[in-house]
Amino acid sequence: MEYQILMSIPGFGPVYSSGILAELGSVHAFPKNDAIAKYAGIVWKENQSGGFKAENTPMSKTGNRYLRYYLIEAAGSVIRHIPEYQEFYQKKFAEVTTQLLN
Fold first, then answer.
1. Which residue ranges make up each domain of the chain?
2. Interatomic CA distance for residues 1 and 4, integer angstroms
3. Hey, is 25 helix, strand or coil?
4. Where is the Transposase IS116/IS110/IS902 C-terminal domain (predicted)?
5. Which run of H or E residues covers position 20?
6. Rounded CA gap, 74 and 17, in Å?
7. Reduced to 3 states, what is the DSSP secondary structure of residue 39?
8. What is the b/e burial string over 44-61, where b = at least 16 CB atoms within 10 angstroms of the residue's CB?
9. What is the pLDDT of residues 12-71, one digit of tens each?
């Protein structure tokens, strides 16, 4: 059932769907979505001390590197295949680029 759900997403396909499920197992093994993100290592490190909280924090990259690879590649494929996601990605990319230039 989880395979069919992943395959129904435009841009996923059998390679990404199989890879994600091979590395993840069942989503029912995780209590919340953020637990899956932490397991894959796609969470951002917190850098804070006292009242200071850094804005520029790198991705953790601890966790299952193969699952992280499949999720990031699949997200890129979705962006290429679904115009709404491509527009949202371009909007967010422009916001970050503008902030970096200022």
1. 2-101
2. 5
3. coil
4. 4-90
5. helix 13-24
6. 8
7. helix
8. eeeeeeeeeeeeeeeebe
9. 999 999 999 999 988 889 999 889 999 998 887 666 666 766 666 676 778 899 999 999
Q: Distance between CA atoms of 73 and 91, rounded to whole angstroms?
A: 20
Read out DSSP for 41-82? T-SBPP-EETTEE-S---B---S-HHHHHHHHHHHHHHHHH-
Q: What are phi and psi of 36, to 5 degrees?
A: -65, -45
For 94, the token pair is: 């422009």
Residue 4 identity (one-letter amino acid): Q
Both tokens of 67, joined, read 């699952």
Q: What is the pTM of this model?
A: 0.77
Distance CA 17, CA 21 (A): 6
How many whole angstroms separate alpha carbon 5 and alpha carbon 37?
Answer: 18
